[in-house]
Amino acid sequence: MKNLTDSFVSLGHWPFAGSFGFNTDILATNPINLSVVIGVLIFFGKGVLSDLLDNRKQRILNTIRNSEELQGGAIEQLEKARARLRKVEMEAEQFRVNGYSEIEREKLNLINSTYKTLEQLENYKNETIQFEQQRSINQVRQRVFQQALQGALGTLNSCLNNELHLRTISANIGMLGTMKEITD
């Protein structure tokens, strides 16, 4: 490592007169070198730098134009989307209102149908009750009639003797015979 530092230190002790070498005096050489390099760069690099800057400017302008076109398209799509949203919201509101009115209508129809069904059931119930009452009345009448007939037969059997019984039978046979003649 010492050899490496010695070689740099020895560069600083080169003689100044008549020889070609490095001048290590920074204050004397840097402004001159910089002015030469900047002058060469300006002279030769002006066209290249100008072309690079023009190309960059055109790309930036194209990008801005494309962005503006995309922004215009996006704004147009946004307006279309907003219009569709408003339309859908109006349709949704209309469906909601129609749905509520349809629900109310169905509710009223259901109530009316239920009342009609209840009335029919009430009528069927009343008809069934009347039918059962009539049937019960008829059964009671038949029993009363049967009991009255049995009582009358019992009374007749106890009151009639054989002779009276035979005369009643003969009279009934005679009445049946005359009825038969009349119908013939």
Descriptive report:
It is a single-pass membrane protein. Keywords: ATP synthesis, CF(0), Chloroplast, Hydrogen ion transport, Ion transport, Membrane, Plastid, Thylakoid, Transmembrane, Transmembrane helix, Transport. The chain is an all-alpha fold. The protein is built from 3 helices and no strands. The longest helix has 134 residues. It is rod-shaped, with a radius of gyration of 67 Å. About 7% of the residues have low confidence.
Helix count?
3
Report the end-to-end length measured between terminal Cα atoms: 167 Å
Task: Classify the helix fraction into a percent range.
Answer: over 70%
Q: Give the beta-strand count.
A: 0
Helix/strand class: mainly alpha
Largest sheet: none
Rg is 67 Å
Beta-strand level of the residues, as a percent range? under 5%
Stretches where pLDDT falls below 50 for ≥5 residues? 4-16
Task: Let me know the average pLDDT.
Answer: 82
Order of helices and strands: HHH
Indicate the overall shape.
Answer: rod-shaped
